[in-house]
Amino acid sequence: MLPLWVFLGITGILFAIGGTMFDKYLLERYFNKSDCGNKNDNSGPGALIIFSALFVVPVVLLVIICRYDTVDFSLHTGVIGMLTGATNGLWILLYLHAMSRADVSKVVPLFQTVPVFGLIFGMIILEEYLTMPQILSATVIMSGAIILMYRRSSGRLGLDVKTMSLMVGASCLVALSHVMFKFIAVDTNYWTATFWLGIGFALFGTLLFAVFGAYRRQFRSLLGKRRFRIVGLNGVNELFDNAGELIFLAAVVLGPVALVQSINAYEPMLIFLICLVLMRIWPAYFREDISIPALVQKFCGIAVISVGSIFLYTSI
């Protein structure tokens, strides 16, 4: 019988896919550049993070109400936990900016680089050694990412360096946040790690609101014009995102980090297929390039990433 962390990991991935689709819908429908009144303004991802920070507060309150006696309020734990929450917020911000620049089916597969960074952190922090199969698998995954990130502009084919950098940075921070979360959860307990992660994420959203005027202006504008619709839709989005994140982190606590992260090996192909279906149903919000060259590029890139991921996971 499969261990519990496998089922939790799969459930978390399914919720995460639902959250990804809501993220794209919200970015296209309410947080796009034209809604800012400036086509050069890309403040939507930051405004969406601020909305997300508001929905973390009920999670924190729920932990306090239901599990107060289990929460460790020591300074050491609190600092690491809040840094974990801020790291979580930062990778989501990078990911949302990447999502606003490219198709979902090109962006999300790059999360397959997360286990690669998990191995790197293991080598640096835990003094683990990388094997040759792991190095080769990581090279294959990065090759697939490069294939996906090529785009045609002005008749020329070039690498979308900015989008790729955003997603590689996001993947690096995902791996780091998972390691930090597990460190706290193992040292104390799951609810302590969840509580401080929520505090850190809320503070990160507050910092974005206070420091970045563009994020703050769009947040206020959307809250004033479409308050109930935005709050309702974002609530559903946060239900998927938070449920997926907390369930997956529970799997991280119960199982080996790299193996738990490996559960999403087939997520890229599933995302690709779902995007094609949603593009047909809601083309205004789920735009995908389905020209023959684009489909061939996406399929080849995702296939290379998937093969590399499978080899990597079997070598861990």
Explain what the structure shows:
The protein is mainly α and 316 residues long. It has one domain. Helices cover 77% and strands 3% of the residues. It has helices spanning 4-29, 44-67, 75-99, 104-107, 114-125, 132-148, 161-187, 190-211, 213-225, 227-254, 257-261, 267-281, 292-315; strands at 150-153, 156-159. Strands 1-2 form a two-stranded antiparallel sheet. The longest helix has 28 residues, at 227-254. It starts with a helix and ends with a helix. The model has no long low-confidence stretch (mean pLDDT 82).
Question: How are the secondary structure elements laid out?
Answer:
Blueprint: H1 4-29, H2 44-67, H3 75-99, H4 104-107, H5 114-125, H6 132-148, E1 150-153, E2 156-159, H7 161-187, H8 190-211, H9 213-225, H10 227-254, H11 257-261, H12 267-281, H13 292-315
Antiparallel strand pairs: 1-2
Identify the notable features of this structure and list them briefly.
single chain; 316 residues; mainly alpha; two-stranded antiparallel sheet; 2 strands; globular
Tally of discrete structural domains? 1
Cα-to-Cα separation, first versus last residue: 21 Å
Succession of helices and strands: HHHHHHEEHHHHHHH
Shape: globular
Spans of at least 5 consecutive residues whose pLDDT stays below 50 are none
Q: The biggest beta sheet, please?
A: 2 strands, antiparallel
Determine the structural class based on helices, strands and strand pairing: mainly alpha
Number of strands: 2
Average pLDDT rating: 82
